[in-house]
Amino acid sequence: MKGSEKAGAKPAAREESLGESVRWLALMVLAVVAVRSLVFEPFNIPSGSMIPTLQIGDFVYVSKFSYGYSRFSFPFSPNLFGGRIMGSEPHRGDVAVFRYTQNTSIDYIKRIVGLPGDHIQMTGGKLFLNGIEVPRTSLGHYEVLDENNRLLSGERYRESLPGSAGRPAVDHEILKLTDEGFANDTPEYVVPQGYFFAMGDDRDDSADSRFQGDGPDDLGYVPMQNLVGRAPMVLFSIDLKHPAWQFWYWPVEIRWNRFLHPVT
């Protein structure tokens, strides 16, 4: 009998151990989902639309609670509720992650340059906000390769975007490649209530709110509900010129100067 009891105890112990492992794994998954949904989430920068502020290969930290929570704050965007919970309006000059207006499964990152009621216009390659030219200062010539290995060659500026809600102006860098084309001579846009106007800091290589049509790359005004969070910092950055499996290149491809680099 004693031998039978001992033999019968082993499966029970294994089942208990398996149950504990499953519960531990479930708690870990819930904790990760909760942190990514409510606190922060890392995002990779795959394109050059925010050069020179953000570089291709940057991994940014995105604060999920900056603007409150919508369905897009959660994995798979479950349609649990409309609007935003604990929502707060973004500030002009914020670099924000949001869902693309034509396909909400895609994340975009741009700078918020217009809030509800703002008048936005590009004239001769210069940005006008509420009828006043946004001041900028030249920082000299700038060249960089984009995600398609195409050379972007132009002028880098420090732009001073007027703050909102009593905040000071936001000084940040932009890249200008040309003053020609539609994106540099636009109609005046008036941002409607419940929306914001987003632009890339690479002003001539960005599909943003200046494009208001129904083309596949047109962003238009962005609903506040589409906001995911604010990007205040670059966690780290990698210049992947070689395939990822060639690990011996990793030390020289890491951009050490961009670790914990603030996004302004």
Instruction: State the low-pLDDT regions, or none.
Output: 1-7
SSE string, helix = H, strand = E?
HEEEEEEEEEEEEEEHE
Instruction: Assign the structural class, choosing from mainly alpha, mainly beta, alpha/beta, alpha+beta, or little secondary structure.
Output: alpha+beta
DSSP strand tally = 15
Mean pLDDT: 87
Helix fraction by DSSP (H/I, runs of at least 4)? 10-25%
Q: From the alpha carbons, calculate the radius of gyration and give it in angstroms.
A: 23 Å
Give the biggest beta sheet: 8 strands, antiparallel
Give the amount of beta strand, in percent.
25-35%
Gap from first CA to last CA: 74 Å
Shape: globular
Protein described:
With 264 residues, the protein is α+β, with helices and mostly antiparallel strands. The chain has helices at residues 2-38, 250-253; strands at residues 40-44, 58-63, 95-99, 107-114, 119-123, 126-129, 132-133, 136-145, 151-161, 170-176, 189-190, 195-199, 222-223, 227-237, 261-262. Helices cover 16% and strands 32% of the residues. The strands form 3 sheets. Strands 1, 2, 3, 4, 12, 13, 14 and 15 form an 8-stranded antiparallel sheet that branches. It has a 4-stranded antiparallel sheet with strand order 7-6-5-11, with no helix packed on it. β5 (119-123) and β6 form a beta hairpin. The longest helix is centred in the N-terminal third of the chain and has 37 residues, at 2-38. The chain is globular and about 75 Å long. Its EC number is 3.4.21.89. Belongs to the peptidase S26 family. It catalyses: Cleavage of hydrophobic, N-terminal signal or leader sequences from secreted and periplasmic proteins.
